[in-house]
Write a structure and sequence with these properties.
This protein is mainly alpha-helical. It contains ten helices and no strands. Keywords: DNA-binding.
Length: 194
C-alpha cells in the first residue's frame, strides 16, 4: 500500500493502524533511525504513551510494521498456493520466487533489506517474532493444502523454506535459481519425511 493511500485512509482508522502507517512512511523514506517515537506518535495523532502502550518500544513498532507487510505478502502466497497443483515442493518454489521478487520490489521490504542499517536486525539477529508468525502461518497453510504431510514434515519444510528465503533475500541471487534450490531442498525433506 503506498503512502498516499495510507494517509488518505487515516481518518476512521484505529490508533494502531495510524501508528503502523506513520512508521511505514518513516521506514520507506529512510528516516527511521533518526525518528523519535514522539514524532511518529504526532504524525499518527496519538500520544507517545499510547504508542508505547500499543507496541512497547521502537523495535516493537518496527516488528509490527514488517509483520503487517509480510502478512500481506503471505496473503498473496496463499492465493498462489491455492492455484497450485498437488506438488508441495513446486508450490514452495513458486512462493519463494514471489517472496524474493517482492523483497526486491516492495518499498518497505527493500528498505529493510538494503537500507537503513538499523532495520536489518528485524530479519537477522532479532527476527524471532517475525519468523514465528510466518512459520506458523506457512506450516498451517502446508498442512491444510497438503494434508498428506505429517505435522513435523510440514513444520520442518516451512521452517527451512522460510529461513532459506530470508537468507536469499539478504544476499540476493536470481529469484528463479533461488526458487529451484529451495524446491530441491524441500522436495528432499518431504521425500525423507514420508
Amino acid at each position: 500500500m503506498d503512502t498516499a493511500n495510507r494517509q488518505g485512509r487515516a481518518e476512521g482508522t484505529s490508533a494502531r493502524e495510524r501508528l503502523l502507517d506513520a512508521a511505514y512512511a518513516e521506514v520507506v523514506s529512510g528516516g527511521w533511525s533518526d525518528r523519535r517515537m514522539v514524532d511518529i506518535a504526532a504524525v499518527a495523532r496519538v500520544s507517545r504513551q499510547t504508542l508505547y502502550n500499543v507496541f512497547g518500544s521502537k523495535e516493537g513498532l518496527l516488528q509490527a510494521v514488517v509483520v503487517r507487510e509480510v502478512n500481506a505478502l503471505l496473503d498473496r502466497v496463499v492465493r498462489l498456493l491455492e492455484e497450485e497443483g498437488e506438488d508441495p515442493p513446486h508450490a514452495v518454489s513458486r512462493a519463494t520466487r514471489l517472496v524474493l521478487l517482492s523483497a526486491r520490489d516492495n518499498p518497505l521490504l527493500r528498505a529493510v533489506v538494503t537500507g537503513d542499517h538499523g532495520l536489518l536486525p528485524v530479519l537477522t539477529t532479532r527476527a524471532e517474532p517475525l519468523l514465528d508468525v510466518l512459520g506458523e502461518r506457512i506450516t498451517a497453510l502446508l498442512g491444510e493444502r497438503y494434508p498428506e504431510l505429517a505435522g513435523f514434515a510440514a513444520e520442518a519444510a516451512a521452517d527451512v523454506a522460510l529461513r532459506l528465503t530470508v537468507s536469499y533475500s539478504l544476499q540476493p541471487i536470481d529469484p528463479d535459481e533461488a526458487a529451484r534450490r529451495v524446491e530441491t531442498v524441500v522436495h528432499g525433506m518431504l521425500t525423507v519425511g514420508r
